[in-house]
């Protein structure tokens, strides 16, 4: 999006503010479709935990994706957005059997990742098709918080437990229609991903009624100029060939499924903040903005870098700033970052703010969560109002003391 457009949106709707570019979302979706164009049956399930605004979900429904959900509330949001139950996969971790049964009652695809629940669910509902999430014991992902396929991970059923898994399936006579894995986010080494895929193919041979194989996602996007990213075109070429070979050996065509989240929405998002104060200390120049890690926690939680552009002065002389928020503890978005000269009331745009940004926002310090805008068909559409004081009090109960 052009900086002037973002500035006008900030003027119209205030700050802090999240803005999402629908055209970028569509572009990323088409990239994935094209990369795996040699696969006859491809299904992309948008991982809605990345960004779950109902208008964004409706956009994905319009594009033709399915949905990857991790909670019963996400399932209900997906249905509310117009997705059909068969377009939704439910992949929780550590939830109760009751929650899984509730999801199954809606008719969505169930994905189970532990032996205990698999046995309980299979005993009670042997007729319900179930996907099994396998832990391939392959380390992938750039941060330990988002690497989920290694041996110490809480996610998935270990490949070393396959004999036990098969015994449960045989004893319950349950219907296994899919095999799934997810190694982690920010995958860079395609060979590591392909190695994990071979483990999944070997596991799939144990099941005769599969309809799909789900390879998760975790594709890395660039966070700054010159940053490395997953070569999705190379992965698409290599995995498509291997998948087609497997389907031939398996004896019937299967669906290749992915669950992209960050890849589809990260680069489409901008977080706009206003500079309240430029503060010079003995060693640092701080740009203090009207937000904090209550709105964008990723730099504090993951150490992630978001490129910051002064869209009020994009061609100004570059200086070094530490960009910090208004939360009353260490609240740093960027340390000693080179940014075009900043003055008070300038608007700063944080890039790559589409994934895991608003969805992880909170009311810490009793601050309001910001508004959201979707730039669609060359128009700005308000898709979530900024919260008010009434929202802070909503559901609180005052008692007489």
Please explain how this structure is put together:
The chain is an alpha/beta fold. The chain folds into two domains: 22-265, Alanine racemase (TIM Barrel, Alpha-Beta Barrel); 267-387, Lyase, Ornithine Decarboxylase, Chain A, domain 1 (Beta Barrel), CATH 2.40.37. The protein has twelve helices and 18 strands. The protein has helices spanning 3-13, 22-35, 54-63, 72-80, 97-105, 115-124, 162-172, 190-204, 232-250, 262-265, 298-301, 389-393; strands at residues 17-21, 42-47, 66-69, 88-90, 109-112, 130-135, 157-158, 176-180, 212-214, 255-258, 269-280, 285-289, 308-310, 318-324, 332-340, 347-350, 371-376, 379-384. The strands form two sheets. Strands 1, 11, 12, 13, 14, 15, 16, 17 and 18 form a nine-stranded mixed beta sheet that branches. Strands 2-3-4-5-6-8-9-10 form an eight-stranded parallel beta barrel, surrounded by four helices. Helix 6 packs parallel to helix 7 (162-172). The longest helix has 19 residues, at 232-250. The radius of gyration is 23 Å and the shape is globular. The chain starts with a helix and ends in an 8-residue tail after the last helix. Mean pLDDT is 94; it is low at 141-150. Pfam families: Orn_Arg_deC_N (PF02784), Orn_DAP_Arg_deC (PF00278).
């Amino acid at each position: 999006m052009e900086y002037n457009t973002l500035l006008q949106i900030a003027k119209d709707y205030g700050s802090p503010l999240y803005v999402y570019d629908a055209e970028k979302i569509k572009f990323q979706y088409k990239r994935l479709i094209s990369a795996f164009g040699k696969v006859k049956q491809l299904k992309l399930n948008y991982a809605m935990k990345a960004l779950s605004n109902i208008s964004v979900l409706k956009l994905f429904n319009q594009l033709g994706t399915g949905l990857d959900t991790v909670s019963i509330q996400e399932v209900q949001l997906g249905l509310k957005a117009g997705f059909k139950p068969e377009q939704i996969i439910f992949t929780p971790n550590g939830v109760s059997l009751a929650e899984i049964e509730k999801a199954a009652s809606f008719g969505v695809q169930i994905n189970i990742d532990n032996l205990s629940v698999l046995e309980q669910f299979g005993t009670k509902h042997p007729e319900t098709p179930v996907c099994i999430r396998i832990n391939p014991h392959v380390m992938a992902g750039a941060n330990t918080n988002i690497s989920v396929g290694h041996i110490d991970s809480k996610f998935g059923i270990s490949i070393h437990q396959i004999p036990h898994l098969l015994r449960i399936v045989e004893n319950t006579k349950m219907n296994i229609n899919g095999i799934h894995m997810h190694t982690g986010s920010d995958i860079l080494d395609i060979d590591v991903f392909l190695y994990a895929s071979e483990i999944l193919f070997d596991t799939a041979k144990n099941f005769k009624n599969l309809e799909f194989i789900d390879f998760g996602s975790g594709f890395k996007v660039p966070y700054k100029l010159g940053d490395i990213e997953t070569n999705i075109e190379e992965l698409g070429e290599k995995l498509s060939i291997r998948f087609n070979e497997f389907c031939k050996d398996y004896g019937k065509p299967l669906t290749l499924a992915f669950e992209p989240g960050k890849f589809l929405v990260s680069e489409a998002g901008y977080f706009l903040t206003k500079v309240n104060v430029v503060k010079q200390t003995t060693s640092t120049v701080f740009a203090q903005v009207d937000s904090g890690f209550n709105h964008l926690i990723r730099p504090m939680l993951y150490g992630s870098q978001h490129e910051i552009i002064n869209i009020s002065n994009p061609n100004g002389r570059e200086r070094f700033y530490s960009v910090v928020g208004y939360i009353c503890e260490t609240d740093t978005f960027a340390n000693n970052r080179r940014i075009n000269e900043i003055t008070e009331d300038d608007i700063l745009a944080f890039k790559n703010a589409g994934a895991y940004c608003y969805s992880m926002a909170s009311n810490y310090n009793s601050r309001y969560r910001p508004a959201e805008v979707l730039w669609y068909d060359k128009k700005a559409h308000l898709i979530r109002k900024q919260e008010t004081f009434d929202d802070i009090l909503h559901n609180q109960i005052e008692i007489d003391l």
